[in-house]
Amino acid sequence: SSGINAEWPLRPGFQSISDFVKDFSACFSKLDILINNAGVWSPPFDSTEDNIETTMGINYLGHFYLTKLLGEYLIRSRGLVVMLSSDTHKGGDITPDHLEVQGNTPVLFKPLENRTFKSDWVQYAMSNRARIYFAKELTARHPEITTVAVNPGATKTSLGRNMCCLKCLGLVFTPLMKTPERGAESMVYCCTQDMSKHSGAYFSDCKPVDLPEASIDPVIQRKLWEVTVQQCDRLGKYR
């Protein structure tokens, strides 16, 4: 079968995603499974090439844009979207103030000023909350696509390579962390089992987990979708 080789720039943005989808559409007519697995934490650069805060831009907004551009291919096969998230979402409350548009960009997507360990952690946590909101709202708006969010758990990867304190903690807690293979188990489980009855759910350790009601606000969920669509309209070829 044919394939696609994609080279992503150091600071990826909407153009590279659009280029990938153009190449995909030239090779394939449908898509069975889309795994949104890209993720950064405390990246060395503040913004993407579209001047979106990097963590939100890569972890959430880029995934949203990619999924929407591939939507027709997923609908054609009644496909599955797996959105990687994390239990760090518990510390990532998204408020109406974050969704306020200043200029032409919501506060949530603006590059941070005077970045600190705490601000980078909160941004990462909010990106994971946004991913859960995305899975739930995509299910509500497009029930013909099955969507789940997945927590891989604490896994030995290079995610925190740009944070010295996390490197030190990693040396201490590495024996307690999952291997990448074990961290992928829930994702593989969702891709190989019938998820149609679990669309919109949050999976951890290969089973759906109930989220606290306080962590999911339907009003914020819908508003986040709306402002994200506006950004897609502004920054890329949204369809």
Description:
Helices cover 43% and strands 10% of the residues. With 239 residues, it is of the alpha/beta class. It has a five-stranded mixed β-sheet with strand order 1-2-5-6-7, sandwiched between helices. A two-stranded antiparallel ribbon has the order 3-4. Helix 1 runs parallel beside helix 2, helix 2 runs parallel beside helix 4 and helix 4 packs across helix 8.
Instruction: Output the strand order for the largest sheet.
Output: 1-2-5-6-7
Question: Which of globular, elongated, flat, extended, rod-shaped describes the shape?
Answer: globular
- According to DSSP, the number of beta strands is 7
Termini Cα gap? 27 Å
Order of helices and strands: HEHHEEEHEHHHEEH
The assigned structural class equals alpha/beta
- Overall pLDDT: 86
State the gist of this model.
The chain is of the alpha/beta class and 239 residues long. It has helices spanning 14-27, 54-69, 71-77, 117-141, 164-173, 180-183, 185-192, 218-235; strands at residues 33-36, 80-84, 101-102, 105-106, 146-151, 202-204, 207-209.
